[in-house]
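Hi,

Apologies if this is the wrong queue. I'm a grad student, and the batch job for Pyruvate formate lyase-activating protein from Levilinea saccharolytica produced an output file that my downstream script rejects. I'm not sure whether the problem is my script or the file. Here is the sequence I used:
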Amino acid sequence: MSERQALLDEMTADGELVERLEDGRLRCTACAHRCTLAEGRRGICEVRFHRQGQLRVPYGYVAALHVDPIEKKPFNHLLPGRTALTFGMLGCDFHCDFCQNWQISQEYCDPLNGVSPALLQRTSPQELVRAAVRAGAAALISSYNEPLITSEWAAAVFREAKAAGLRTAFVSNGHATPEVLVYLRPHLDAYKIDLKSMQERRYREMGGKLQAVLDSIAQAHAMGLWVEVVTLVIPGFNDSPEELWEAARTLRALSADIPWHVTAFHPDYHHTQAEPTPAALLQQAAEIGQEAGLHYVYAGNRPGRVGSLENTYCPQCALPLVQRRGFYVLENVLTPQGKCPRCGTAIAGIWS
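Support response: The file is valid. Your script probably expects a header line. Output copied below for reference.
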C-alpha cells in the first residue's frame, strides 16, 4: 500500500451500512452495487473496504467545502434565496465520463487525478455545523462527490445540523438501496437525484443500474423526503424527445409536484465531443415536462436565456411566486406558510 493510500485509509471509521455474511465476508449496503468484500478488499467506490472484520468508511474530513446559494445544488423548493454550506469527500460509485466534479469524485479510479491527503481538511461534525452557523447558512448539504458512499459521515454531520436547527440534503446520483434511505431518513430533509438517462445501456456505461435510481426516487418520495430531480441534457446522449417524454411521464406517475430540472451540459472531463446544450433544447425538454403534467419544470445553467423557465409559478392561478436569474432569487412572494398569496394554493416544498 502506498503512503498516500495509507493516509487516506486513516481517515475512516467503522461503517454501519453493512451485512455480515456467514463466510466472514461483508456486504456493503450504502449503494445499489451491494459489494461483497473479503478481508482486504475494496468496494467499487474504492473508499469503503474490509479490514480486520470491519467495514471501514470515510470519516472526519472534507475535500471540498463552500457556501453557495441553495439554488446552485439545484434546489428550487428548498428555502429559496438562502445559502447552504456544502461539503464533499472523495470517490464515487459511478464513472461518468462527463462528470463535472471529477477531480474529487473520480479520485480513486482515474490516473489523471491525485488529490494529496495534505489538501484534505480534517474536521468534525460539530466544526462543520459551527462553520455553517457562522456563515449564516440555512442548510448543510453533502455533494461534490457521491454522498451515498460516505453516508455514515453525512449522518453524523446531519445529526448535529438538525440539533442546531439547520436543514439537511443530499445531492446524489440516486443509486441507493432501501437500507441506506431508511438509515438516512431521520437525519435528512431533502434529496436531489440525478436522472441521467432513461436507457439501461447508458447506466451500464456509467457503472450503475437505471432501475435502482428509479426505485430510489420513488422510495425517497414515499418516505416524505423532499425530492427534486435533475436531468443534465447532453446532445447525442439523452436528448431525444422520446427519452425526455419517458423521464417526464415516469416522474408524473409518482407526483405532479416533483420538480424536474433540465440543465445544460458543457464539455468536460472525458466527454468533450458533444456540443454545449443549446437553450432551445432545454426549452423543448421543459415543454415536454409541462405537457406531461409536471407542475414545476425548470431549465438551468443558461441564466437569462430560457425565458420564464427559471421561475416558480402557482400551478393553480399561474402567479409568478419565485423569480430567479441563475442561482439568485430576484423576488419571492410566497407566504411564510408556502402558499400562493393570490389563490391560497399550497406550493409543494420546504419553505422554512
